[in-house]
Amino acid sequence: MSYSSIVLAESSLVGYWKLDEASGTTAADSSSGGHNGTYPSGVYLGEPGMHYADPDTSVQINGGSIDIADASSLSLTGAFSVEFTFAGDATASYEVLASHWGSGTNGGWVIGIYADGTIDFNIKSGTTTSSVATGSGFDDGNPHVVTCRRNGANMYIDIDGVRRATKTNATSGTLNDSTSPVRVGSANLAGYDDFVGHVEKFSLYNAALSDAAVSLHHGAALYAQLEADVIAGAAGSADLSVTNASLGTAAHAGATGGASVSMTQSMAGAGVAKATGAASMGDTISAPLAIPITHPAYDLIAPLRLVVSLPLTVSAPLSIEVAHPVYDIAAPLAIPVTGAYTISAPIAVAIELPGLFVAGHANYAPRWRLAVSVGGVDMSARLTGTLTVRLEESAARVAEFALLPNAGAIALYQWAAQAVTIDATVMSLAGADQATYRLFTGVVDVPAYDVVTRVTTLRCTDGLQDVTAAMPRAAVDTLIGGNWSAAAFRADAEPWDYAQDRLSTLPAAFDMDHRRAMRVTDWQPAAAFRILSEEHIEDGSLAVQWADGASLRNTVRIGFAYRFPRCKLRVWNWGWVYPFSLSEIVINGYTIPTTDMVTDALRGTGWDHIYAPTFTHPPRGPIEIDMGGWFAIWVTSDQDLQASTKIGQTSRFNAQYAVADQDVADKLVMTATAIMQRRYVQQIEYAYDITVVHEPSVAAVGELAEDISASMAVEWNAAAWEGWRKPESPPNGWELGADSEADEPPAPVITAPASGEAYVDYAPDAVSDAAARDAAIETLLAIARAKIWASHRQHRVGATVPFDPRLDLIHTVAIDTAEVSATGKLRGVTHTLDMQSGRAATRLELAICASGSAGSADSLSAPAAPTVPAVTPAAPVDQSGTYVGSAASSVPMSETMVGYFTNVGQLTQSYSPTAPVYPVQFTCESPEIEPAARENLTVTRSARYRVALPQDQFTVEA
Amino acid sequence: MPFAIYHDAALTQPVNGANKLVCPQASDGSTGAYDTSVYVGSTDTAGSKQLRAASNPGVAQLQIAPVDAAGGSGSPATDIKLSLSAGGLATATGGAALNLGTTILSGVANAVRVYVRVTDSTHVVATNTDISLQIAGAQESAT
Predict the structure, then answer these.
(1) Residues of chain A above pLDDT 70, percent
(2) What does the pLDDT average to over A580-607?
(3) Which of these, A67, A521, A568, A623, has the minimum number of CB atoms within 10 Å of its CB?
(4) What is the pLDDT of residue A282?
(5) CA torsion angle for A525, A530, A532, A537 (degrees, to 10)?
(6) What is the H or E stretch that residue A687 is in?
(7) How many angstroms separate the CA atoms of B48 and A369, rounded?
(8) Which three-class secondary structure state does DSSP give residue A862?
(9) A473-480 vs A495-503: helix crossing angle, rounded to 10
(10) Measured between alpha carbons, how far is A14 from A32 in angstroms, rounded to an integer?
(11) Residue of B24, B126, B131 whose CA lies nearest to B76
C-alpha cells in the first residue's frame, strides 16, 4: 500500500494535503473534508518528491504559508495528530513548520524547527502551553517524516519511524480552538519565522495515531515496500514459497548476497510485519533474496506484507519464503499474538542481622531485652508484667509499663513529668546483642500504685499536644503547612488547635517519632516497607474491618459568603441658562439670580461638587437700553443685590443708580454649570455554592453528604466614606471658578468619570480582600477533600507479627495471605513485650483507602467571582428651567418646576395682578440613585469539584 | 492482563520492582531456608489465552529459572530453589530451571504455583536484588 492509501484509510483523518500540485494556487485536500488550502506567492510547485518510490511531488516554500481556512472539523482540541514530510536547512532562530496558532488564547498547536535542527511541538490550553522537543540535527536538508501526537497529558514526536521526544505531563485540558487558519510553513505571528524548505503530504487527525500506525506511515514514506500474497498451505505441508512480489521500482529486505533476514517483529493484527536488517544505503541485492519465516506461532493472514528497512538497489528476483508453517494459513483470521517475551519477577534477598529483621521468618523466635530510663535512672531491672508502646496517627505516642517497688515510702509525685526513654535490644538466637532501637521518648503522665500487688504503673506520653502548644504559629506553619483562613477557623485559636486546623486541610497525619521529632506523614501509601504473609502473621490475629456507612462521606457541600462594599461615585453634569436677553430682563422687570442663590440650591441637593460652579454674568453698567422712545440705564450696585437684584427703571438722565461697585455684576448669573458627585456604597454578597465530590463512591453507594460553611465580610466605615465632602473655599461657600485641593478624600479614591458612574470593590486590608476570599475558599476545598479522603480510608486490616521495633506510622505494609491481600499505610502500631513469658509482638493496623476506582480530580482552586449585574444610571435632569410669575400666562407653582423663579415688573404690560406671584428663588433637583444600584445585593456562584482517591490494594477472599 | 508472576493465588499482586518477592534471611544462617511461593498466570478469562514457549509453541516446555543479573556480587542464583510442590524443594537443585509445562492457560484457577526456597550463602548483611525469576521466550496468544 502506498503512503497515501494508508493515510486515507485512517478513520481519524480530517484533512490530507499532498501538496503535489504542478500549478495554480490551490492546495487540494485529498480527504473527504474538502478543506482546500491556498499556496502563498513565491512557492515553487512540482518540486521533487521526498517519499521513497512515490511519484508525488513536493513544494518549496520561501516564506509565507500554505493557509487552510479554519473550520470546525480542523479544530483539534482533544487528542490529535499532525504528520508531514519536510526537508530544509533552518537558518532562522525558530521556523514554523505547521501551526494552528495565534496570539494569547488563540493558540492551539504549533510545530517548529530551531536553528540547530531541533523540532518542537507545542500545545496550548487556555494560557498553559506544553512543549516537547527532539534532539538537534533535523535541519540537514534530508527528508524527514514527522508525526506529532497529543493524547491526554502525553505528547510525542516521531521522526523517521523513531520516537524522538515524549512528554507525559503535558496539559490535558481542552486545547484552545484557534480561529487562525491552519498554516503550513508559518504561524503568521511576530516572533515566529517562516519556514524555508520543502514540504509534502501534510495530514491532520482528530485522534492520536497508534504507534503501529505511525510506524506504518513512516515505513511507507521512507522505505521500499515488498508486498506479496501468502497462499495458505495445508496443515503439515511442506515449505510454502511465494515468489511474486508487487514491487515498486526497487525493494530490499536489508541484507546482501541473498542472506536471510529474520523476522524481528511478529505478526500484528493487520498482518503487517517489519523486517530490519543490517544493510546500509547503497547495498545491492545481486542474488535471490529469501526471507524464511520459521515456526510461525500464529496463523498468517493474507496478504502478508513485509516492510523492509532501507531503500537499496535490487538486481535480482526477490521472493518471500514461509517455511515450516506449523498451522494452517487461512485468511482472514486475526489472532493477536505477542512476540516472545520474558516474564520476570524480581527477588529481594534480605540478609539481615540475626534476630530482628528476620522476625517474619517461620523459623525465628525473637529474643529481646529492654532498657527503660525514668528521670535518668535505669529502671530496667524493676520491669514487671507487660510493657506496651502504642502509636496512633495524629495522636501522642503512649507507653505503659510496671515497676516493682523499691523498699520504703512510695512517693508517686516524684514520678510525674519525669523523662522516660525505652530502648529495645534484639538478640540473635545465640543471645548476642544485634541492634538497639528506641521505642519511646517522653515523660511520665500518670503514675499509679497498686497497694495489693505493690506494683507501680507508669503511663507515659510523648507530649505531642503540650509540645505543639508551645510552638509559635510560624513554626506550626513551617511544620504542617496546609491551608488556613480566618474565615474557616478561629483566628485566636491556641497553637494546638491552630495546628489541628491546618492539619484538617491535609491528607496527612501529624505526630512524633520515637525521639519526639515532629513529623507530618502523607496518607498516601508508599512502597511497602514489609510484605507480610501467612508465615509472618500470628494465627488468628488477622482482622478486617470495613468502613461503616454512617461515617462515609463522598460529598461535601460548601457554603461560603463573602460580603464587601462596592464604593460608587456618580457624576452629575448640571447647567442653567437664563433664556432672556439683558434688554428683555430690563424691559420686563425680571430679576437676575445671584451666585449665592445657585450655589445654595446646588448645595441643597446633597450632592458634592467636583469642581466649583462656573458662571457667566451680565455686562457691567452703565449701558443705555432703548426702551422705545425712552431709555433705561442698566446699572448694578450693592443696593441692587441686597434687593434681590431688583432692576430699576429710570429716565435717560436720571443717574440716581450710579454704579457703586463695578464687581457687582460678577455676582449676577446669566448662565451656570456645575459638575457634581455623589458617593454611595452598595453592600454586595458573593454566595458560593460549592460541591466537592468523589464520583466513584457516589456512583457506588449514592450521595453521602456533609455541609460546611464559612463567611467573610469586609469591615469598614462606609458611612464616613459616603459622608465625606470636598472642603469649601472660601469658608462661606464653594470657591467660584476654582477647585479646592484641601483635604484628600478617604480611601478608596475613585477617579471621577466624565459622566455616569465609577466604582471600586473595596477591602481595606489583606484580611478580607479578594486574595483572602479565595484563600478561604481553597481552605474549605482542602478541608472537603481531606474529609472525603479520611472517610474512605476507614477500612482497616489488623495483624499481629513477631516484635519488630522498626515499624512506625510512616511505613506502608502489605499483607499477602490466602484470605487477605491489602496494602496500606500504618495508622496504628502497638508493641507488646511481656517480661514473664518473653513473648514480644507488634500489632499493626493498616488504613485502607478504597472506593472502587480513583476517579477524576480537578484543581482545587477557588472559582471565579460571581458576576454582579450592571446597573445603568438613569439619565439625570441636567438642565434647570426658568419660570416667570405675575404674568397673564403664569401658571401656579408645582413640584415639577425646577430652576429660577422670577416675576414681571408691575409697570410692564405683561403684568397681571391676578396671576400667581412666584417667590424669587433658585432650585435644583438632584438625580435619584436607583434602588438596584444601592440596595444590598447577593449574587451566587456554583461550582463542582471532583477529588480522586488512591486505591489501596484490598481484597478479601472467603 | 498479560501473563505474569504474582505473589498471590488470586493474581492480584504482581511481583514487580515495587513489590518484590522479599525473602528474609539471617546473616548467621540461624534462620535456615526461607520458603515462599509465587503464581504464574493471567487474570484474563479462563482459557481464552495461553502462554507457551515461543521456540516451539505447545511443544517446548515453559521454564522458570532464577537469573542472576550480577554474577559475582549479590546473591548467586544457586541460592534459589524452585519446585512445583512444597515437598519438591528438598530435592530441587539450586539455580536450576523448573519446567512449567508446555501451556499455561489464562484464568486464576489455571495459575501455576511455584514454590521458592531461598537459602542465603553469602552471610553478608545486605539486600540483594540481583536475582529474579524469569520465564524467557514466552509467547502469549489466543487459544
Answers:
(1) 78
(2) 85
(3) A623
(4) 35
(5) -110
(6) strand A671-693
(7) 57
(8) coil
(9) 20
(10) 8
(11) B131
Map A551-607 to HEC letters.
HCCCEEEEEEEEEEEEEEEEEEEEEEECCCCHHHHHHHCCCCCEHHHHHHHHHCCCC
Q: Residue A126 — left, alpha, or beta (φ > 0 → left; ψ -120 to 50 → alpha)?
A: left
A377 burial level (CB within 10 Å; 0-12, 13-18, 19+): exposed
Give the residue on B whose Cα is nearest the Cα of A357: B24
Helix, strand, coil distribution of chain A in percent, nearest 5: 15, 35, 50
Pick the closest to residue A206 from A418, A31, A62 (CA basis): A31
**Using an 8 Å Cβ cutoff, are A807 and A935 in contact?**
no
| E strand residue ranges, A356-452 | 367-374, 377-378, 383-392, 398-403, 419-427, 433-450
**Sole residue written with cell 548467621:** B28
Q: What is the DSSP letter of A734?
A: P
The three cell numbers of residue A702 are: 449514592
Q: Grid coordinates representing A612? A: 466649583
CA A348 – CA B79 distance, rounded (Å): 12
Query: Is A346's CB within 8 Å of B135's CB?
Result: no
CB A471 within 8 A of CB A495: yes
Which of A222-226, A603-607, B113-117 is the most confident on average?
A: B113-117
CB neighbours of A837 closer than 8 A, spacing ≥ 6?
none
Residue spans of alpha helices (H) in A737-866 = 770-792
Instruction: Tell the residue number behind the cell numbers 542465603, with chain if given.
Output: B120
The mean predicted confidence, pLDDT, of chain A is 80
Q: How many CB atoms lie within 10 A of CB A856?
A: 11
> What 3-state DSSP class applies to B57?
coil
| Total CB pairs under 8 A between chain A and B | 182
The model scores a pTM over 0.95? no
Over 90: is that where the pLDDT of A632 sits?
no
CA dist A478 and B71 (Å) reads 48
Q: Let me know how long chain B is.
A: 143
Q: Is A373 on the interface with B (CB under 8 A)?
A: no
The torsion angles phi and psi of A382, rounded to 5 degrees, stand at -95, 0
The set of cell numbers assigned to A30 is 485529498
- In the prediction, which pLDDT does A308 show? 37
CA distance A169 to chain B (A): 22
Q: Beta-strand (E) ranges in B15-107?
A: 21-26, 34-41, 49-53, 62-68, 80-83, 98-101, 103-105
- Which residues in A676-696 are b (16+ Cβ under 10 Å) and which e? bbbbbbbbbbbbbebbbbbbb
User: Picking from A395-399, A437-441, A461-465, A621-625, which range would have the lowest pLDDT averaged per residue?
Assistant: A621-625
Is A86 in contact with A144 (CB distance < 8 Å)?
A: yes
Cα separation, A591 vs A777, whole angstroms = 66
Specify the residue for cell string 496546609. A482
Between positions 534 and 573 of A, the ones with CB within 8 A of B are 535
With CB atoms and an 8 Å threshold, state whether B23 touches A349.
yes
Interchain contact A932–B (C-beta under 8 A)? no
In B, minimum Cα distance to A342 occurs at B136
Q: Please enumerate in sequence order all residues whose Cβ is within 8 A of that of A785, keeping only pairs 6 or more positions apart, or say none.
A: A507, A692, A860, A947
Chain-centroid distance of CA B76 in Å reads 15
Distance CA A251, CA A184 (A): 32
The residue in chain A having the minimum alpha-carbon distance to the alpha carbon of residue B6 is A345
Integer-rounded Cα Rg, in Å, for chain A is 46
Give the residue on B whose Cα is nearest the Cα of A295. B56
pLDDT exceeds 70 at position A275: no
Beta carbons of A352 and B23 less than 8 Å apart: no
